[in-house]
Design brief:
The protein has 257 residues and is mainly beta. It has 1 helix and 17 strands. The termini are far apart.
Amino acid sequence: MGRPLAMKLAFILFTLLLCAGCGGTKSTQTPPPNGSLASGAWQFNQSQPSSEGTLLDFNLSQSGTQISAVGSTSCFDYGVNQPPYSGPGGLEGVVMDGAPTCGGVSGSISGNSVTITWNTDTTFTGTLNSNGSITGTTNNNGATNSFTASPVASLVPNGTYSGTFSEGFSGDIVLTTSSGSNYQLTGTMTVNGNGPYSLTGQLLGNILLLSGTVEGEPASFQMYYDATGNITGTAHSITAFTNSGGSTMYSGQLTPQ
């Protein structure tokens, strides 16, 4: 009886030693997975100390941890007056200060921390929230402000819009839009029944960039599609505005027919 008991005790001791060795190894904590940005159109709203804000529209793409902007124009920078709006139809809500040639966009994401650099001198540092938006702060040459960024839920729908321009072409304007792949955009415009004149361009967030020959003259249009009315005061409208350095000004608001 003594030998089997000794063997049992030896087995128990060996087992305890093995368990003690297993418990001595520290576990490595798995880092949180990288968040995923919604690919497509985004709008960044940067607050300002004054009554104006700066909007930036990008078509963003994420590959692994890297973030970049896609499209022949990387981003669009423009200012807006905060409500209430004093102009007819909220036209003063869009300041004619668009810059379709603003610099490139690059960034990265680690976990839910997002860093995006625009135009080499403005950095957005924020958190990707559970609802898909990004909130944080911007740094522009030492000046800091807060920002919010969200995917553009509804790009410009294909359709027909009509109205008048207060600057540029006079009379009745009818614009048709048709969006294609890779943010490409085509359309036609009639002016007082003349036309239709063909237009081509691209979508950039909420921005329509269209150009063509209208009434015998080359014309380039920068337009803002406002799905909710929060910016221009009129939901589902298209508002035309021109770069402050442009030689010809186009201003007006078109609503869906």
